[in-house]
Request: fold
Amino acid sequence: MSESQLRQNILDEFEFDPSFNSGHINVAVEGDIVVLTGHVISYAERLAAIAATRRVKGVHAISENIEVRYPFTKTADDRIAQRASDILDWNVLVPANSIEVQVEDGWLTLSGTVDWHYERAAAEDDVRKLAGVVGVTNNIVISNPLGDHACIRACLESALERHAELASSGIRVTVKDGNMVVLEGRVDSWDQRRAVQTAAWSTPGVAAVDDRLMIN
Reply:
């Protein structure tokens, strides 16, 4: 596929997706890298634009520098922090009193300790849609002591074998100190890459994932 055709396909996908306004997003294709620049009116729109780009066949890598420019009066940091704390308190997937919230110039930082990645992800999903948020840094630590390196690798490889789309993909799994899982190899799509990531994070004992998978 030519660079111009890939760019047009991305623009068509942007036009197709009603969840964000792409009028101020610039798309360039340089080799196998898609470069996104410009601005949107919320952090949620920025994430939606990135997700739309990943859906397009032929996108192997993304360089993204989309700025969030809220069209309304800037929300005070203390109000954003209070809203974030309130919504985290209501989410049953986030352990009570486990997450700390800090906000500086609209940029929200999460810290604390949870047992599973899905709890970490749920906390971030909660706050990134809040009005006034321009970005999120997720510093929540996974503390799941179960499993040694051999058990983690065997469990994850079994999970990948059970996945119909990944059984023959030749993904290499390495477990390093601190129970960090390193994923290497090639997959056919962003959806497959996310499936591998999800399997890794769902494996008992995994504290971190280093995703080095390449898109074909």
User: Anything to note?
Assistant: The first strand starts at residue 25 and ends at 30. The chain has three domains: 3-68, 77-142, 149-215. The two ends are 13 Å apart (CA to CA). The chain has a mean pLDDT of 91.
